[in-house]
Write a structure and sequence with these properties.
Helix content is 22%, strand content 15%. It has helices spanning 2-13, 31-41, 54-57, 154-160, 176-182, 197-203, 209-217, 224-236, 244-249, 258-268, 302-305, 337-345, 372-385, 389-393; strands spanning 70-72, 85-87, 89-92, 110-112, 139-140, 147-149, 287-288, 314-315, 413-415, 428-430, 443-449, 454-460, 463-468, 471-475, 481-486, 497-502, 515-523, 531-533, 536-540. The protein folds into three domains: 2-18 and 242-393, Cytochrome Bc1 Complex, Chain D, domain 2 (Orthogonal Bundle), CATH 1.10.760; 31-238, Cytochrome Bc1 Complex, Chain D, domain 2, CATH 1.10.760; 409-540, S-adenosyl-L-methionine-dependent methyltransferases. The longest helix has 14 residues, at 372-385. Strands 9, 12, 15, 17, 18 and 19 form a six-stranded antiparallel β-sheet that branches. The protein has a three-stranded antiparallel β-sheet with strand order 10-11-16, with no helix packed on it. The chain has a two-stranded antiparallel ribbon with strand order 1-2. The protein is of the alpha+beta class. The chain has 14 helices and 19 strands.
Length: 542
C-alpha cells in the first residue's frame, strides 16, 4: 500500500524537492571563502563584547534558530502581558564608547530583541530576508556606496546587519569600520573550543584573518563587503536536503512511514498548509498577516514598504527542521508544532485587520476539516519527515565549535558575596567580557551602585573570603592594582551609579592562563559602614 501511495505522488512531487542553491555570479562559492565564512559565522570576536557570534542565535540544534527563549516585555514594558515577545538575548547595553549603560528594560543583563530568531538554514533560497524582508536583493557596499551585486544578495545584506545592531552584536553607534578594523587584530577562534576539522585546519600554524582573506579573495584586505560575501557563501553550503521527505520523493518508498505519508497528504490537502508552505522549500517566500497580534504592536512588512496592504505581514518561514525548533512565529509566541497547528486549526489569530483570507477554520468535519487523527499525522510529518538527520546530529556540513559564551555566565566568573549599598541594593560586578589576548574591546564594570560615588576597582593575584568591618573582601590584598574613578548617575541616587574600565588586553602570549581577581569598592554613605562592594570576579587570560 505504501508503494502505491508513493507512486501516486511521485510525479506531482518530483519537482518539489529543495531546488539548487541560488548563487549570485559576483560571489561564487569557493572552498577558501566557505571556510572563512564558517569561521566568521562562529566568531564571537565579531561582536563588540566578544560574547555573541552569528551562531549564538542561529544554531543547528534548534533547526537553525535559537534554543534560548527570553522574554522582551513588548510595547507596554510589562511582563507578563499579552504583548510580550520571546526572542534571543544579545549584548548588554553599551553606549557609543562601549561603556556599560543600564537598560530601562533589561538592566545590566543581555538585551532581548523584539522578534524571534528565524532559521538561517534555508535563508539562501529567500529573495528577501528578516521577518519584514528589509534585506533586499541588491548589495550596496556600505564602505563605498557602490552596488556590487545587482540581484540575489539578500543573504549578503542580512549577514552583516546584526554586526552593528546595538541589541544583537554591537554597542550604540557601532560602525562597520570598527568591525573590519578589529578583525586583523584578533586571533581566529581564540574564544572557541572543540573546533571542527575544517576550521582547525584553516587556522593551524598561527594563520591570521588577513591570511584567510588573502586565500579567499586574493589580497589580505579585510572589508565589510568581503565579510558579507564570506558569511553568505558559508550559509549557501548548508543544504538540508536529506530529510526523510527528500529521500521519499527521490524514489525511496520506505523513507517515510505510512503515518508520515498520510500527514503529507493532509498537509497538501484538507489542511491547506501547502498554500503558504510550498513543498520543496516549504515556504512561498511571501509575507502574510495571520492575525496573531494587533498591527499596532509590530506592523511587519509595512515598516519597510509603507504600503497599507503589507500591514502586519511577516515572511513565511520554511518548515524544514521545524521539529528541532522551540520557538515559532515572529514574536516567538508558540513553543511547539502542535501549538502552531492548533492556532491554524482555528483559522489563525483573532485580529482581523488585514488578515490573510487564505486562513479559514479547519476544525470542522471532512472534507473541509481536519479530524484529530489526520491532525496528528500532519504534526508527525512536519516534526519528523522534514528534519535532516545531519542537522539534528551536527554532522556533515552542519558541524560547529563550542563557544566561550556557552560556558561562562553573562556577568562573568563571579564568586564571593557583595556588600549592601544605598537603597538596600547590592552593586553588580560586570565581568562578562572575556580577557582573551589582544582583545581591544575588553572592559569590566560596576552597576547598581550609588550615583556619582567614588569607586575603586581592586585587581589582585588571588581570591579572598574575608569580612572586615562588615565589608566582604573577595580579593587578597598585597601587590594589588587599584583603579579609581567616579560613577555616573545623579549624586546619591541609589542604584544609579555605573562605571566601566575599558582597556585593551596586551598581545602577550605569556599572559595565557594567568588569572587576576577583581572587586569594586564604592564610597557609599547609605551603606552600613560607608562602603559598598561587589562580588569578586575571576579574570582569566585566554
Amino acid at each position: 500500500m505504501r508503494s502505491l501511495v508513493f507512486l501516486g505522488f511521485a510525479a506531482s512531487l518530483a519537482a518539489q524537492g529543495l531546488p539548487p542553491v541560488p548563487v549570485p555570479p559576483q560571489n561564487p562559492i569557493t572552498p577558501a571563502k566557505t571556510v572563512l565564512g564558517k569561521l566568521l559565522f562562529w566568531e564571537e570576536q565579531l561582536s563588540s563584547n566578544n560574547r555573541v557570534a552569528c551562531g549564538t542565535c542561529h544554531t543547528f540544534g534548534a533547526g537553525g534558530g535559537d534554543l534560548r527563549r527570553v522574554v522582551n516585555p513588548g510595547p507596554d514594558g510589562i511582563t507578563p502581558s499579552p504583548d510580550d515577545k520571546f526572542a534571543s538575548p544579545g549584548t548588554t547595553h553599551g553606549d557609543a564608547s562601549n561603556d556599560y549603560v543600564r537598560d530601562p528594560f533589561f538592566g545590566f543583563g543581555p538585551q532581548v530583541g523584539s522578534r524571534s530568531s528565524p532559521s538561517f538554514l534555508t535563508a539562501a533560497w529567500f529573495p528577501l530576508l528578516f521577518w519584514d524582508g528589509r534585506a533586499g536583493g541588491a548589495f550596496v557596499d556600505p564602505a563605498t556606496g557602490v552596488t556590487t551585486i545587482p540581484a540575489g544578495a539578500a543573504l549578503e545584506n542580512q549577514s552583516i546587519g546584526p554586526l552593528i545592531n546595538p541589541v544583537e552584536m554591537a554597542h550604540d553607534g557601532r560602525l562597520f569600520a570598527e568591525v573590519v578594523a578589529k578583525l586583523p587584530t584578533v586571533r581566529p577562534m581564540a574564544l572557541a573550543s572543540n573546533l571542527p576539522t575544517d576550521m582547525a585546519n584553516a587556522i593551524a600554524g598561527g594563520v591570521t584573518y588577513p591570511d584567510l582573506f588573502q586565500a579567499a579573495f586574493g589580497t589580505p584586505d579585510v572589508t565589510i563587503a568581503r565579510v558579507a560575501y564570506a558569511l553568505a557563501t558559508y550559509q549557501r553550503t548548508l543544504v538540508p536536503n536529506q530529510a526523510p521527505y527528500d529521500l521519499f520523493i527521490a524514489g525511496n518508498p520506505n523513507a517515510m512511514t505510512p503515518q508520515q505519508i498520510n500527514g503529507m497528504n493532509v498537509f497538501n490537502g484538507p489542511a491547506r498548509c501547502n498554500l503558504c508552505h510550498t513543498p520543496g522549500l516549504f515556504s512561498d517566500t511571501l509575507f502574510h498577516n495571520v492575525g496573531l497580534r494587533p498591527i499596532a504592536e509590530d506592523n511587519g512588512r509595512q515598516g519597510v514598504t509603507n504600503q497599507a496592504a503589507d500591514a502586519g505581514r511577516f515572511k513565511t518561514p520554511s518548515l524544514r527542521n521545524a521539529g528541532l525548533r522551540g520557538t515559532f512565529m515572529h514574536n516567538g509566541q508558540f513553543t511547539s508544532v502542535p501549538q502552531v497547528f492548533g492556532f491554524y486549526l482555528n483559522g489563525g489569530g483573532p485580529f482581523l485587520q488585514n488578515k490573510d483570507p487564505l486562513l479559514v477554520p479547519l476544525n470542522g468535519p471532512p472534507p473541509g476539516g481536519v479530524p484529530p487523527q489526520a491532525a496528528n499525522d500532519l504534526i508527525v510529518f512536519v516534526q519528523t519527515a522534514l528534519t535532516d538527520p545531519r542537522v539534528a546530529a551536527g554532522t556533515g556540513p552542519f558541524t560547529r565549535p563550542t563557544l566561550r559564551s556557552e560556558l561562562v555566565p553573562e556577568a562573568g566568573m563571579l564568586y564571593g558575596q557583595a556588600t549592601l549599598g544605598s537603597g538596600g541594593l547590592f552593586p553588580s560586578m560586570l565581568a562578562g567580557v572575556p580577557a582573551n589576548i589582544g582583545n581591544i574591546d575588553f572592559k569590566i564594570g560596576v552597576g547598581n551602585a550609588r550615583g556619582g560615588a567614588a569607586a575603586t576597582l581592586v585587581l589582585g593575584l588571588a581570591p579572598a573570603n574575608v569580612v572586615i568591618n562588615g565589608v566582604n573582601l573577595n580579593v587578597q590584598f598585597g601587590g594589588e592594582l587599584l583603579v579609581s574613578g567616579m560613577l555616573s548617575g545623579a549624586f546619591g541616587a541609589a542604584g544609579a551609579g555605573t562605571g566601566t574600565l575599558r582597556v585593551p588586553v596586551p598581545s602577550i602570549p605569556e599572559l595565557a592562563g594567568l588569572s587576576l581577581y577583581g572587586q569594586w569598592f564604592i564610597i557609599d554613605g547609605g551603606a552600613a559602614n560607608g562602603l559598598a562592594a561587589t562580588r569578586g570576579a575571576q579574570i582569566l587570560f585566554l
